[in-house]
Amino acid sequence: MKTTPNRLLNKTFFHDDVDVQLQKQVLTESFELHWHEFYELTFVLDGQGTNWVNGMPYSLKQGDFFLLTPADFHEIAPEPGTKLELYNLIFSQSMLSDEMVKLLFSQNDGHYATFLTGDSFADVLFRLNSMMKEQQFRSVGRDIALSGELNRLLLEWHRNRPPKTNLVEGIDKDQNRSFHSPSHPGIQKSLIYIQHHFRQSITLEEAAKQAHLSPNYFSEQFKKSTGISFQLYLQGLRLQFAHALLRTSQLPVTEVSLISGFNTLTHFERVFRLHYGKSPREAQKDSTY
Questions:
Q1: Per-residue pLDDT tens for 49-84?
Q2: What is the pLDDT of residues 246-261, one digit of tens each?
Q3: What is the DSSP letter of 247?
Q4: Residue 127 is assigned to a structural domain of this protein
Q5: Per DSSP, what are the bridge partners of residue 286?
Q6: Which of 73, 121, 196, 271 has its CB surrounded by the most CB atoms within 10 Å?
Q7: Do 44 and 289 contact (CB within 8 A), yes or no?
Q8: Domain with 142 in it: what CATH number?
């Protein structure tokens, strides 16, 4: 699956002043490696395949329900010689209330998918069909209806997600400390923001603003909650993303560095070697993908 990822932008997909779009798709071949500025819900109606998320393969079958964030990259493909039928729902961050963000992502434990059967499957299918009709016929109150159905779908995903685990697979032990309850309620909101925007140029002041704290007090409370500093936490997320991207793409190391949020190649190569014991080029060369 080593290809160069495409970046899908909000301005390309969202029109008519509503930041949500639903499509019913039938895949007969791979949808190439990509990431996007928006969030994505994928519901499998029929068929089998694989969803490669951040370099990890997840088997797909009828009833699988995936939620991905702007921090994730993936490639989805049906089994060879078959087709994969699914609903694909994309939406921008503007569609998420603070309460919904906290509900969905405070449990950030590495589980991207849930599996629906019976009444849950039927309910999600009904709501997706309702959204499709609202989208097509543009009736009065369409935006309100779309927002309401989106919230119900996100709740259904959350209520059926697997139980919380203690550690996130592929995340360093220091990073996993952040998934325990923070000592200050604002820190949790800031953590979620950082996890979804770490590839951008996030300053301590911006992160503190998310928590409604002064930079100095935020820095103190952040380290108390996570066990590491804000800068080390941010660097860890960027390194994990870069490592996964090197393993699953043919992007030049320089581009991987920039995409992952590092300002200079020299700094990226130095911290990568310190963290993984090898250079980025060696990591890409050693990849088995």
A1: 999 888 788 999 999 999 999 888 889 999 999 999
A2: 887 788 999 899 889 9
A3: H
A4: yes
A5: none
A6: 73
A7: no
A8: 2.60.120.280
Distance of alpha carbon 103 from alpha carbon 246, whole angstroms: 32
Which pTM does this prediction carry?
0.79
Whole-angstrom distance, CA of residue 268 vs CA of residue 251: 15
Domain end point (choices 125, 160, 195)? 160
Cα(154)–Cα(273) distance, integer angstroms: 39
- 147 and 92, same structural domain? yes
For 115, phi then psi, to 5°, come to -130, 130
Distance CA 178, CA 191 (A): 8
Start-to-end CA span in the chain (Å): 7
| Integer Cα distance of 174 and 227 in angstroms | 7
Spatial contact of 199 and 260, defined as CB atoms under 8 Å apart = yes
Cβ distance 47 to 85 under 8 Å?
A: yes
CB atoms within 10 A of CB 212: 12
